[in-house]
Amino acid sequence: MAQKVLITGGTGLIGKRLTTLLLKKGYEVAYLTRKKSNIPFVKVYEWDVKNNHIEAGALENTAYLIHLAGAGVADQKWTEERKKAIFSSRTDSIELISRELKKRNISLKSFVSASGSSYYGEDTGDIQHTEMSPSGKDFLSEVTIEWEKSADSVKQLGVRTVKLRTGIVLSNDGGAVPKMAQPAKFGFGAPLGSGKQWLSWIHIDDLCRLYIECMEKDSWEGAYNAVAFPPATNEDFTKQICKALDKPQWLPNVPSFALRLVFGEMANVVLGSNYVINQRIKDETDFKYEFPDLLKALKDVLSK
Fold first, then answer.
1. Domain span at residue 128?
2. Could you tell me how far CA 125 lies from the centroid of its own chain?
3. Phi and psi of 98, rounded to 5°?
4. Does the predicted model carry a pTM greater than 0.90?
5. Residue 155 falls within a domain, yes or no?
6. Is 218 inside a domain boundary?
7. Alpha carbon distance 287, 228 (integer Å)
8. Could you tell me which of 20, 1, 11 has the C-alpha nearest to residue 211?
9. What is the DSSP annotation of 243-257?
10. CATH code at 285?
11. Hey, is 156 helix, strand or coil?
12. Tell me: the pLDDT tens digits for 236-272?
């Protein structure tokens, strides 16, 4: 009998690709979603976090739980209302699941939660961060800290728990790459701000393979920096996108003040610098990246 993997946020960018890989490996995949819909080969259950409701049967017979749910950080301007949504969508949801697991005395084999490299701060310059580095003190750091604390509510039930502090995910189906590649396709590629800020990245297939590895292998536990190495500067990232598309890059940098004028506080997402090292993955595991090279990763993504 196929083992059941229950995913929150399964209809998002990472969830869709992860689902494909899980189904190929013979797992039964189920989603918790706010609105029920028909998804091929996936059992869909409704939940309403505000009203503390999870559809009957969602948690039963679940072997593995993967938590991807969370309002998009760069989808809208950061109004106070949006900030609350970014925060609560990550924390309240998993705390509800934790309470239900405890109440129903359901035991999982493992729990893997998304987290963010923003744990260390929105903008940390050239400082190199491993999993042992201290957390930051800005908005996204606070969100990520509480996100991980909420994940630990499942750990407290005796479930092996893994948290993946993820950088920029390279995919052509969403995220940063299509937005950065669009002007480059017409020869208008340009670095953002100084261009010197570090971007820690990972190909979506490597990230999804990490989720499955963490889920399956008992040796994985705690927080890991889910990034490739080395990171790239924004300037180099833009150059590699242009190179992958075989397009020139000739426009000057987009100034920081212009980005802040358009995006407000949310501009920190693209102007911030994060140099994150996947120290625990390198030192403690035998995980092999399929796309450790940025140009190779971008060529693969942009060719699809």
1. 4-170+201-227+275-290
2. 21
3. -60, -45
4. yes
5. yes
6. yes
7. 11
8. 20
9. HHTT----SPPBPHH
10. 3.40.50.720
11. coil
12. 988 898 899 998 865 666 655 554 655 565 455 566 7
